[in-house]
Design a protein that fits this description.
The protein is α/β, with parallel strands linked by helices. The protein contains 13 helices and 14 strands.
């Protein structure tokens, strides 16, 4: 599966700072200092309702991670999946009387268009669940053969008790896990499971649903969590730098995935940091497909909204915060974009060397994008109010905003 084209990232003078970021597993801020190559895995969409503002906010956060790392002169290996076969996708296709593969392909294409418009840097490896199945099957077989998985009416389940580190990503108690499992795609009440929290690794073929050859597992399709594990281990190995996604993925998805990988490899942890973006609400409720309260990037673009303004609206909220999308949020972003563009369009201006370092400092401090915007705002205010004589300043500000914030002025 191909990703989307990359926008050019301007080089800035000097060198960026190592990233300090909040780690869900330790509930503290850690400093990530990768070697010459930084490694990140971000969970992708299930392609049936792309791309809403909640999606965009999540991918914007991890785009900032890449930009901070690139500014430190590191290479970045970024991997993202597409869950192009799963119950919600099949249910939507059935509801709308569509072929599920056509629905997935169309929504994935729309997602690519939106990511391109928002200038999100693409992953080097963009992998669909379907194309990953040949690598998933042997992992499930290994877990089963090692006694870490068991069969139940043809389905194969992972035993969470096989991982002594299970629970160390989300740090939730058993009852909270059980409630979230039921809410987020698990089946804790299924009779015959060894532990209510055990997640499915391989679903035996169901009538009328797609299935693939699973070797000794029989025909079926993969569970949700093992999909990302297979892709991550194949392209990143263990103990990569960041496992990322929305905060609703901490449990069960990232918790279960970590356990799968740790049992398979005997190594701990799967990722050095588990990083989660907050949820975006509309009209007082979290944006969700089930509620239907979604604002789509493509709809905003069709209405003539500049994608740079959409991106500034996302950047105006800290990535870990839960926040609400409103007309006022967008209007403020549009006005900010106009001010910034007017300021950098002048032939000369006030010096901006301090601005570069201040933006770097804000982003290296747990991706504090609102603080970075405030730095640029202050320069813009002085630039508009003062006659400067630094001919290089407007261009330096424009390149800084482009390289570190992904906004083209």
């Amino acid at each position: 599966m191909h990703a989307w084209p990359a926008s050019e990232v301007p080089a800035l003078p000097g060198k960026g700072r190592d990233l300090q970021i909040h780690d869900t597993a330790t509930q503290g801020t850690i400093t990530l200092a990768p070697g010459p190559v930084a490694r990140i895995y971000v969970c992708g969409i299930t392609p049936y309702d792309a791309t809403h503002i909640g999606h965009a906010a999540t991918y914007n956060a991890f785009d900032l991670v890449q930009r901070v790392w690139l500014d430190t002169k590191r290479q970045v290996v970024y991997v993202q999946n597409v869950t192009d076969v799963d119950d919600p996708l099949l249910e939507r296709a059935l509801r709308d009387n569509q072929d599920w593969t056509e629905l997935a392909e169309r929504e994935t294409a729309l997602f690519r268009e939106d990511m391109t418009a928002l200038r999100m840097l693409p992953p080097q490896h963009y992998i669909g669940a379907v194309e990953a199945i040949p690598g998933i099957v042997p992992l499930v077989e290994r877990l089963r053969d090692a006694g870490a998985a068991y069969e139940l009416d043809g389905d194969v389940y992972f035993s969470v008790e096989s991982d002594p580190n299970f629970g160390k990503v989300s740090n939730l108690d058993a009852e909270a896990m059980r409630l979230l499992s039921a809410e987020r795609g698990g089946d804790p009440d299924r009779a015959g499971k060894k532990n209510p929290l055990d997640p499915m690794l391989w679903m035996a073929a169901r009538p009328g649903e797609p299935s693939w050859d699973g070797g000794s597992l029989g025909r079926g399709r993969p569970g949700w969590h093992i999909e990302c594990v297979a892709i991550a281990l194949d392209h990143l190995g263990m103990t990569f730098d960041i496992q990322g996604g929305g905060s609703d993925l901490a449990f069960p998805h990232h918790e279960m995935g970590a356990s799968h990988a740790q049992v398979l490899t005997g190594e701990f942890p799967m990722a050095k940091a588990y990083v989660h973006a907050g949820m975006v609400a509309l009209h007082g409720e979290k944006m969700s497909k089930s509620k239907g309260n979604l604002v789509f990037v493509s709809a905003l673009r069709r209405a003539g909204v500049d994608p740079a303004a959409i991106r500034l609206a996302l950047l105006s909220h800290h990535y870990r915060a839960d926040w609400e999308w409103t007309d006022e949020v967008l209007a403020e972003a549009v006005a900010r974009l106009e001010r910034w563009r007017a300021a950098v369009s002048r032939p000369d201006g006030i010096p901006a060397d301090d601005l570069v370092e201040e933006v770097r400092g804000a982003l290296s401090d747990d991706l504090n994008a609102p603080a970075a915007l405030a730095v640029v705002d202050r320069w813009v205010e002085r630039q508009i109010a003062t006659d400067g004589d630094d001919e290089s300043a407007p261009g330096l500000v424009s390149r800084t905003v482009d390289a570190l914030l992904g906004v083209a002025l």
